[in-house]
Amino acid sequence: MNTRNSNYLLFLLAFLTFISCEKENALECPGQGDRAIDIIAGPNLGGTTMAYLTNPYGGLRDERYVSTYPIFMNWLDGCQETYTVNLLRKLGQTIAVGSGFSYAETYFLRSYFNVEHGKAIDLIQELHYEDYSSVQKAAFSLTITGIPFVQEVILLPSESFTYSSDVGAQTKTINFPESVVNEYSPWSYIGVRLPGSSELRAICINRLNDQSRTIHFSEFNEVLREEEVVLAGEEAKVFMAKVVLDIAEQKTVKLGEHVINEQKIKIWMPTVFEGILLAFSSSSLLSESWGMQEYYEDLPTEVSLGVNTIDAATIDGTTASVELNLPGYVRLTNSDYPLMVTSAFQRSLAGLLEAGKTHISIPKVAGEFTACYPEAAYLENVWEEGGFRVTHHHYPAAQSLDQYKRLAELSWLDRQRYQWCSVLFQ
């Protein structure tokens, strides 16, 4: 064999070897161009964090250590429309061990699938439950004149207060201590029960703007009656009720949040309102837990409880299969996270899924990371220890997965209607 042919064969062998080594990490997609992802925000990047992309074929690209957002990632010559973004983190922390605590190096791998290229994204899905922003409110007093003898004073939502009475002068002073108020829902009912009455005479006040003042009892022109709702279906642990006084102004008053001892609830209801929001949830310690909130134009006499949107789920080491009967946001975690953080190895896989059965490729742990921290290799097998938990969030008003990416654009009322369930698979 002449020298030219020998050199050619050696070159061809080296080229084929290079292509073979690259197949795991890259796909042949001529003319497709680059695939870029700009991550503007996400979970905490504390400790030592590596970010990298994976595709459904298991390839890894653009591995780098990161410390802050935004993160710009690029997969050269990629041809997938979506990728999985992985954040692999090592963090020293104190964890629960039996009845005590111990310091340990904890390894996290959070993976977010179906992330589209060419768009700036926030990795954390913004799930809208109760809007909350705390405002510190100074103490104030409300003096009521022209008030007859009252049997009981009730504040809705329930919180601490004191009051004093001057029967002769027919005055009563209610003292509100310094407190924290939710600026999105600062309204409260002050109700009084007169002797021999089952109703409350009430006034609705804005705790955010209120200050010490004097009012006449004639301003207590609201009437609240105690109503009962029977609960059917699954057993609930906690309920919360909010009466909607004005949908356009998003004006609500929280009427109560209580542990359920029987399969029925009692609520103080005004006679004038636009609707009511009822929320229920089961115990979070069960292998199957759930929660739901629904809007009703009128208070129902019976509510059927229970959420079961996860039909099946399996993990075989390289692939997760999830079967849903409704679309929504799904998160898979190893079994003791996030409900009870006792593991030094925590792994999650999250993203949006359509209804039906979906196969999700489980990303590999980056070899560059395990080379530095060999213990992190255990994340590959963490699903096999004690099973895994699947949590699913569904919003009936979101008609497509694209709408889930923009839940803030739904109407305020549509954002109040949601359900979730969480199932442990072993």
Question: What does this 3D model show about the protein?
Answer:
The chain has four helices and 30 strands. The chain is mostly beta strands. The strands form six sheets. A twelve-stranded mixed sheet has the order 3-2-5-6-27-26-29-30-22-21-18-19. A hairpin with a 4-residue loop joins strand 11 (162-166) and strand 12. Mean pLDDT is 86; it is low at 8-28.
Per-chain topology:
Elements lengths: L2 H20 L12 E7 L6 E7 L5 E7 L4 E5 L6 E16 L2 E17 L3 E3 L11 E4 L2 E6 L6 E5 L5 E5 L4 E6 L2 E4 L4 E7 L6 E7 L6 E4 L5 E12 L4 E9 L4 E9 L4 E7 L4 E7 L6 E9 L5 E4 L4 E6 L3 E6 L3 E7 L10 E9 L2 E6 L5 H6 L15 E7 L6 H4 L7 H4 L2 E8 L1
Parallel strand pairs: 1-7, 6-27, 9-16, 17-23
Antiparallel strand pairs: 1-4, 2-3, 2-5, 5-6, 8-13, 9-12, 10-14, 11-12, 14-15, 15-17, 17-20, 18-19, 18-21, 21-22, 22-30, 24-25, 25-28, 26-27, 26-29, 29-30
Sheet-strand content, in percent, reads over 45%
Radius of gyration: 29 Å
Q: Indicate the structural class.
A: mainly beta
Number of strands: 30
Helix share, percent = under 10%
Mean pLDDT: 86
Please tell me what the overall shape is: elongated
Low-confidence stretches: 8-28
Note the main sheet. 12 strands, mixed
CA distance, first residue to last residue? 62 Å
Oligomer: single chain
Strand order of the largest sheet: 3-2-5-6-27-26-29-30-22-21-18-19
Number of helices: 4
Short description:
Strand 18 and strand 19 (251-259) form a beta hairpin.
